[in-house]
Specification:
Elements (H helix, E strand, L loop, with lengths): L10 E4 L5 H9 L1 H4 L11 H8 L10 E6 L5 E11 L4 E8 L9 H16 L4 E7 L3 H9 L3 E12 L2 E11 H7 L1 H4 L4
Parallel strand pairs: 4-5
Antiparallel strand pairs: 1-2, 2-3, 3-4, 5-7, 6-7
The protein binds coenzyme A.
């Protein structure tokens, strides 16, 4: 990638079949896989890509969105899952794919875009997430975007051969409105 993408220029777009090889490569990086709360399984490329095909099917409960720069270069993945329109809540997850692009403000910008979509387009009231208790960079990003820690889920994940505590965090629409008054005022 010639220049580092500017966080102000990134956008989210729906996942396509052409994105799956990049996703496979990103999931090979243990610095990503070991930080995600979900389990990890080694798969071959063909098996993994065939498994991911089902992510392309339309779903009202899960949105997988690729983070791209102004030139549509793929930067990472964000997911809004468990979308519950009765309780108007969902769960967020994210990673930045290329290691060289982590720590440059892209994660924070992408979380803010996903929260705008969740609160201002879909009309959700609560977005929550789960993060491993030693994932300091991720927690910094979530706090900067308005998430607050709600509690510690003891030994809720099994990572790298040991149980790890998981922190449950959430943000409400009213928190987001307070932090992003310029965008939020467009719909209020
Ligand atoms: C977590 C992740 C999405 C954040 O995206 P990012 O683009 O790297 O994050 P940003 O650059 O926007 O912000 C990172 C913040 O963490 C801080 N940080 C980075 N490394 C740190 C460290 N070792 N200790 C403390 N803070 C650290 C940065 O200073 C920055 O905070 P600041 O803006 O207050 O200075 C990305 O690092 C990633 O994909 N990590 C691997 C997968 C992962 O952990 N996903 C989240 C699972 S819950």
């Amino acid at each position: 990638m010639p220049n580092d993408p500017n966080p102000a220029d990134i956008r989210l777009r729906g996942l396509t079949r052409e994105d799956l090889p990049a996703l496979f490569e990103w999931y090979q990086d243990r610095r990503v896989a070991d930080r995600l709360v979900g389990g990890y399984r080694l798969r071959g490329r063909d098996e993994a890509i065939s498994y991911m095909q089902k992510w392309l099917e339309p779903s009202s409960a899960t949105f997988r969105l690729i983070i791209v720069d102004a030139a549509d270069q793929r930067l990472g993945l964000t997911i809004l899952s468990g979308i519950d329109l009765a309780n108007r809540s969902a769960e967020l997850s994210i990673f930045i794919g290329p290691q060289a692009l982590r720590g440059k403000g892209l994660g924070k910008a992408a979380v803010r875009l996903l929260l705008d979509h969740a609160f201002l387009d879909i009309g959700l009231n609560r977005v929550e997430l789960r993060v491993l208790d030693d994932n300091v960079p991720a927690m910094r990003v979530y706090e900067a975007c308005g998430f607050v820690a709600e509690g510690r889920m003891r030994q809720a994940a099994f990572k790298q051969g040991r149980f790890a505590d998981v922190i449950l965090m959430s943000i409400l629409a009213e928190d987001h409105r307070r932090l992003q008054p310029a965008t939020a005022s467009a719909t209020t």
